[in-house]
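Recall the central idea of this unit: under ordinary conditions, the amino acid sequence of a chain determines the structure it adopts. In this exercise we apply that idea directly, starting from the sequence alone.
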Amino acid sequence: MKKQITENWWNDFFAEFRPFFAHKSPKETNSEVKFYLKKLNLKKGKLFLDCPVGIGRIALPLAKKGIKITGIDIMPSYLGELSEKASKAKLSIKLFHQDMRKIDFENQFDAVGNLWTSFGYFEKDSDNMLVLKKLYKALKPGGKFVIQVINRDWIMKNFLSNNWDEVAGVKILEKREFFYDTSSCITEYLFIKDGVEKSLTSYIRMYSFHELKSMLEKVGFKNVVGYSSVKEEPISRDSREMFIFAVK
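Accordingly, the structure predicted from this sequence is:
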């Protein structure tokens, strides 16, 4: 029986998920930042939209390079944490609490990013497509886009229905169910901290490279290319992550 997804499931889920951002090491983050600077042609004074921005894992290092950052996120706690970090570092970052389906920028940014599998959260394919349309609209003509997501083909090869994880004193049990009719995964998470358990459920529509390439081209993007790593290696079923770039 298919698990029921709570409306706006991300509100509760990401509040609990915050400690697991530690899975990305500073070394990985630094490599990704250098990669984005190069591939998006980001230089001091350029405007970059990070949507969603999270706690600023990529936005803060880019801001330190002189990139003018605008960040969008649905989580007030993440925006508050990022704002505090930016203030301490004396960095100016524009932040907005907003659903990424409802942003309304037009021809404003030199580059736009949707990073660390922050796509496919909506059960309606039309809503996920709407996100791409909004991000396309936000770019200046000739502006560059990057989306970094987990690779559906890798998931199919390495799928685990159950998995234990632990970070920062929080244990987590993941119980996954994959639905081939929608190419989606519903995961029940059991968070355990100091003997207290909390159960939450997440939804993600997963994509193969060819699907995202087709979606981006339908929106209007050109020159869509994909890599499996910051070393610009090709995408295959052995690639856990995909870095996909396109031009408006």
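The radius of gyration is 18 Å.
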